[in-house]
Design a protein that fits this description.
The complex is a heterotetramer, with two copies of chain A and two copies of chain B.
Chain A (H helix, E strand, L loop, with lengths): L1 E5 L2 H5 L6 E2 L8 H11 L1 H8 L4 E4 L2 E2 L12 E5 L6
Helix pairs in contact in A: 2-3
Chain B lengths: L1 E5 L5 H9 L7 E8 L3 E2 L2 E2 L2 E6 L3 H17 L3 E7 L1 E3 L4 E9 L2 H18 L2 E7 L2 E4 L4 H12 L1
Parallel strand pairs in B: 1-6
Antiparallel strand pairs in B: 2-8, 3-4, 5-7, 5-9, 6-8, 9-10
Helix pairs in contact in B: 2-3, 3-4
The chains are: A alpha+beta, B alpha+beta.
């Protein structure tokens, strides 16, 4: 299983069913996962397209979307931040 | 150094008092508190919600605070950031720096606030009469962040 | 705006809490507190005494504060300055600014502190193991004041 | 009578007798007064010589030492300030 976390505006359009998923056979990299997510929920795909999206894998910033996704990973999708 | 993600309302002045307690070795305390305003640009705000990513948010803010401490040779730093639902009048963020001299205390607070605006994993949603909207950093926040980096 | 010359020890955080009470129209509070250190440049300080000129000191600080309020469009300002005998650990000066945005709150506090260092009619005398000495503004205080004027 | 106020380091060397004085006949201006004070207490004169001294007359900054001193005035002698 892979845990998916959608923050900020992404959380508003992410269906509950995406919180935990069985890793689809055709998803090998972070880039694959992002595209798969966009197909599952087009509004989420559009929201990610419309802004800068950062991926965090197991609490570490993913700089390279060709990195592999493995069973047991937690992947978070972050829109631009607005703290302070 | 104390970094806290607060799920409940906090009393900024009580927190600062506890932070400075017994520190007669430092001469300067600079601080900033950002409050939830009742209106933004004349539009009423009924509620502010801040999302965070548990674990990652704490770690990132700690990293930014450590960078600030090193850069300004600041003996101690306090950061409290609210998450969850925040009502007008409540404190959103508190940054306080203790230092030997006032310039480094000021600079530490100012630069860390700039970092938090653009680099802290937090997401603000404002609810007003026209519904809710997510806030994104304004171009001037990024410019200020850039300047903080260079300065 | 509140300007106070305090002959007795005061609690900076309690004063700031009273100052911000009920102000949900402003989003930003910046503040600075200068404390009497137990040592200056490694030399123990047993006592600090601050002289003032009653009437004139209050008027001059009020004038400096009003100038700051005008210049930074700062809705409210609090200044408390201790005079008399001050013990290590006690607060000497508190400047707090409430504003809509954080930049103007920061700038107001910073610039008013620069003004106070060089232009407030106050005279500091430090007593340490080698006796007492009157403090005069350092060249960098004047430079900072100059920069504040130009900035 | 003229009230004299000596602040900061000037206060340390000013004799109590200078707190209130009958205006001397030869003192017409602030400059005269400053010189007269220096003659009364040379340590005060030296202290004023060694630093920048500002005069305040009736709570207003004196920009011109040729201004007259009158009976009933309060004149304060200020060394450089060190607040904040």
């Amino acid at each position: 299983m892979v845990r998916l976390v959608f923050l900020g505006k992404f959380g508003d359009v992410a269906p509950a069913g995406l919180a935990e998923i069985a890793l689809p056979g055709d998803v090998r990299t972070l880039s694959d996962l992002k595209q798969w997510v966009a197909r599952q929920e087009p509004r989420l795909g559009q929201a990610m397209e419309a802004t800068r999206t950062r991926l965090i894998v197991n609490q570490c910033v993913a700089h390279d979307l060709t990195a592999p996704v493995s069973d047991g990973d937690e992947v978070a999708f972050l829109p631009p931040m607005s703290g302070g | 150094m104390r970094i806290c993600i607060a799920g409940q309302a906090f009393d900024p002045q009580a927190e600062i008092a506890a932070f400075t307690q017994g520190r007669d070795d430092v001469g300067a305390l600079a601080s900033f508190v950002g409050y939830c305003r009742a209106a933004t640009d004349g539009v009423a705000v009924s509620e502010l919600r801040i999302d965070h990513y548990p674990g990652f948010t704490e770690n990132e803010i700690t990293r930014l605070a450590e960078e600030t401490v090193r850069r300004f040779d600041c003996p101690d730093l306090l950061v409290i950031h609210r998450v969850g639902v925040i009502r007008p009048g409540e404190a959103i963020v508190l940054v306080a720096a203790l230092s030997i001299h006032r310039a480094s205390a000021f600079d530490a607070v100012k630069v860390l606030m700039d970092y938090l605006k653009t680099d802290a994993p937090l997401w603000k949603k404002e609810t007003g009469p026209d519904g809710a909207r997510w806030i994104e950093p304004r171009p001037e926040d990024h410019k200020r962040r850039q300047k903080a980096e260079e300065g």
